[in-house]
Amino acid sequence: MRSSNGRTEYPRRVGVVEDHAVTIAGLRQILADEPDVEIVATAASVTELLAVTRELHLVVLDLRLPDGSSPIANVEQLRAAGVETLVLTSGDEPFLVRAAARAGVLGVVRKSERDDVIAAAVCAAAVGELVPSMDWAAAIDSDDSFAEVDLSPRQRDVLSLYASGEPAARVAKLTGLTADTVNAYLGRIRQKYAEAGRPARNKTELFKRALEDGWLPIPRRRR
């Protein structure tokens, strides 16, 4: 984002997507003495934030949000609005970090990092610089062995319903398929995951695979 004279605008406008007021207040305090960045908007979801403003250079994004949205969907939504993303996370759920890394964020920073590390990361990302970290690098490295599974739209529907807890008979009713066809789909889905080296032998494992690939919303955080 540049001014009419072609110079880069400062301070850089930062949005925060986070549902914990304490975290937002802490981030404001960390950045209070940074003249090159300014938090101009906060919200509990990407959709809510973009409804407030799209005039942003960077969004600091938590990975687990109350609307159940996936990191991939959130980063894609921000990129469509022309905004880059820096992830600020507790880091205790590697599959969410991996999903964010796959979506193309500028970096991943733990909330437990020192204040100066977090401040430096936000300032760097606000001008479009990559922010290397062990979590981000590990997520990218592990992605090489994280084989994607190509499911058809119908297979995704069946997986989403079944993995979320619906019995096969109910999935058949909701999708307009026969019970035999649903079971055949589930068998093919399991086979595809097995061939990718990502076992899905039971409903629990199917649930995990559906979460990893974004076919199910992220479970809401317990209060």
Automatic annotation (TrEMBL):
Domain Response regulatory: 13-126
Keywords: DNA-binding, Phosphoprotein
Phosphoprotein listed as a keyword: yes
HTH luxR-type domain residues: 144-214
UniProt cross-references to InterPro entries, sorted A to Z: CheY-like_superfamily, NreC/VraR/RcsB-like_REC, Sig_transdc_resp-reg_C-effctor, Sig_transdc_resp-reg_receiver, Tscrpt_reg_LuxR_C, WalR-like, WH-like_DNA-bd_sf
Domain of life: Bacteria
Keyword Secreted: no
SMART domains on file: HTH_LUXR, REC
List of residues that carry 4-aspartylphosphate: D62
PANTHER family, alphabetized: TWO-COMPONENT RESPONSE REGULATOR
Protein name: Response regulator transcription factor
Organism, scientific name: Nocardia aurea
